[in-house]
Amino acid sequence: MDIASILRDWPYEPGQLAARRIRGADGKEKIQLRLDLGLLQMEVSGRPDGARPHGCESLLEYHEKQRDLYRKQRGSDDGFMLDAEACEMLRAEGLLYYHRYVAEFVLEDFPAAERDTTRNLRLMDFCAAHAADAADRQAMEQHRPYVMMMRTRARAQAHMAGKRTKAALVALQRGIREITDYYNASGQEQAVETSPELAVLKALAEQVESQVPMDPLVKLKELLAKAVAEERYEEAAALRDRIRRVSEYRNQRHGPEMV
């Protein structure tokens, strides 16, 4: 039962997150996350601890099925409520998924990290909609911007890993808008300027944007403006012809360019 030998072979480094994949005694792949006093071991899919509450993949799935049954019987989910104990257990389950998506980030398994962050956002939505007590409806909202940020990072990093730089930038810009909209809708407008989550995404967006190749048409227009400013009119005329040809080609393939 003593895990000292395992910990000796995998030293803990303060301030560093360390995760690894191992093959369990059941032959299935597991994820391990090193902690200061031990480690966490998690399943790679389903509920991280491998449990199946009420025969479902997770408690969230169980309560969603209960909600759907209630809706089918009554025509709507008005009146469907989660008591304090159910909310507490759902929050505890959300923590399991948090540990796993942190490990997935360390392992650079970004699609899995997006899956688990999306799942925890679904959990937040469910409790916000159905918790009987106002405190339970708000309990996880303080964490929503962080989880939204992590999901956005997962999406962007997955695109970057696939050399899809423009798609990564679009994902980051979308995430920034979503968090900003959340703050504005929840009466936290001042947080838009101070949010560490937005600061992280904006810094990453700037970094990614610097790697996005410039549109050839934009580059030609910049060269044209410079040639005109420097009174190099023959070169400017040639650049206008190139811009016209590129624009005509794009219009033929994609329709008129939107300005």
3D architecture notes:
The chain is mainly alpha-helical and 259 residues long. The protein contains eleven helices and three strands; from the N terminus they run H-E-E-E-H-H-H-H-H-H-H-H-H-H. The chain has two domains: 166 residues; 38 residues. The chain has a three-stranded antiparallel beta sheet, covered by helices on one side. The longest helix has 23 residues. The chain starts with a helix and ends in a 5-residue tail after the last helix. The model has no long low-confidence stretch (mean pLDDT 91).
Characteristic key phrases:
three-stranded antiparallel sheet; 3 strands; 63% helix; single chain
Brief sketch in words of this structure:
The protein is mainly α. It contains 11 helices and 3 strands.
